[in-house]
Amino acid sequence: QVQLVESGGGLGQPGGSLRLSCAASGFAFSAYRMSWYRQTPGKERELVASITNTFGSTNYADSVKGRFTISRDNAKNTVYLQMNSLKPEDTAVYYCVANLPRPSWGQGTQVTVSS
Asked: For 69-112, what is the HEC assignment?
């Protein structure tokens, strides 16, 4: 059974940093691309960042490029999202996604950026 458990969300200050983690189990983690999405009420779900399985190639939404970094530790079956230079518009629920033949989503973690 695939499980994705996000952690690390919470309240961040504008200009500050947060680090999200996603612990994966139930599938061959190192074989699949992993992604982070986010969603705010009334807006479409946004792909924030992805990282490939083999070479760890990454891609980012323009809105977070240069501020966020996605990484993975295949030995720990964990994917991370380092979020720096936070902005109020980064406020959202962040979801970890395993890009399996049938994609699997975590339960989400709330990130709120406010002073």
From this structure: EEEEECCCCEEEEEECCCCHHHCEEEEEEECCCCCEECCCEEEE
Mode of pairing for the β-strands spanning 109-113 and 10-12: parallel
H or E element, residue 26: none
The residues, any chain, with a CB within 8 Å of residue 109's CB and separated by 6 or more, are 6, 7, 8, 9, 20, 93, 94
For a pLDDT cut of 90, what percent of the chain falls above it?
94
For residue 56, what pLDDT is reported? 84
Place of tokens 């992604």: 35
> Among 103, 106, 75, which residue's Cα sits nearest to residue 3?
106
- How confident is the model over 22-59, as pLDDT tens digits? 999 999 999 999 999 999 988 999 999 999 987 889 99
